[in-house]
Design goal:
This protein is α+β, with helices and mostly antiparallel strands. It contains seven helices and 13 strands.
């Protein structure tokens, strides 16, 4: 995967952050901000030293005002991200060119059209299709489908070993088959200690698009997560994907912001829209 976690401790702050080589970004995992200015400075210097173009810093509501600023501004939020407490996603761009998105205005226009649509979806599995939780026998078909659908992806989902490790640590994969052919897959990457899950890795074979398979998979994943007492459910959807953003809107998820040039997917950096399941 090429990622590594850096931990830095000082008397006035400490931070744990993931260095994502594929997407050239730093993602803060945990922190204590006794000295916010020193913490921000450390992260920016680390990013420049490691060639990272973006820093993503989810902060707790009580820390927002003291950490925001100094080159960090808010791009969005996720309700209940920190064991029920909201997270505010701050971003900094050590490389100025990473801050600018030529397609953002058009994507925001499309988003407004989606948000004007009714929040309602009804669908059923077509005859001849089966939907179930994925197991070990599905790893190689899933890897082949991911490789077919994505030219590049933030995580190596086209690697069977990576998928096996994800399953072993408790991530939930659901699949739809048409006979013996894998038609669609989606997953929940679960952070058990925080009781949260990211709905991700949605891929449908081009031959089966437009059939509502992603929506069915996501609904089943949501139910399984709730049964496991995982109540913070969110997704980062490619802002360029009309279909995936419409799916989450129709399933009742709430738009919470856009992360600019956030990750490397399908050959380039993409803006990602945050969708969050309302706490019910």
């Amino acid at each position: 995967m090429g990622d590594r976690v850096v931990r830095h401790y000082r008397q006035d702050f400490w931070v744990s952050a993931r260095l994502d080589q594929t997407s050239e970004r730093i993602w803060v995992i945990d922190y204590q901000a006794g000295n916010p200015a020193a913490l921000r400075s450390f992260l920016k210097k680390l990013a420049l030293r490691r060639g990272m173009g973006k820093i993503i810093f989810p902060v707790k509501s009580g820390d927002l005002l003291k950490i925001q600023g100094g080159g960090f501004h808010m791009e969005g939020m996720i309700d209940g991200y920190f064991q029920g407490e909201n997270a505010y996603f701050l971003a900094a761009f050590p490389r100025a060119e990473r801050r600018d998105s030529r397609v953002l205005n058009q994507e925001q226009k499309v988003l407004r059209e989606i948000l004007a649509c009714k929040k309602d979806w009804r669908g059923s599995l077509p005859p001849g299709f089966t939907l179930r939780q994925a197991g070990g026998d599905d790893i190689f078909p899933m890897a082949r489908l991911f490789k077919k659908v994505f030219r590049s992806y933030p995580t190596p989902v086209y690697d069977p070993f990576y998928l096996a490790c994800s399953m072993k640590k408790g991530d939930l994969f659901m699949v739809v088959y048409h006979g013996d052919r894998l038609a669609s897959v989606a997953a929940a990457e679960i952070q058990w200690e925080q009781r949260r899950a990211e709905l991700t890795n949605c891929a449908t074979d081009p031959a089966y698009r437009g059939m509502g398979l992603n929506s069915l998979l996501l609904l089943h994943i949501e139910k399984e997560c709730l049964k496991r007492n995982i109540h913070c459910l969110y997704s980062l959807a490619r802002a360029s994907s009309y279909g995936m953003n419409l799916v989450f809107h129709r399933l009742g998820y709430v738009f919470r912001g856009t992360l600019i040039n956030n990750c490397h997917i399908d050959g380039g950096f993409e803006n990602m829209n945050i969708w969050v399941r309302p706490v019910k």
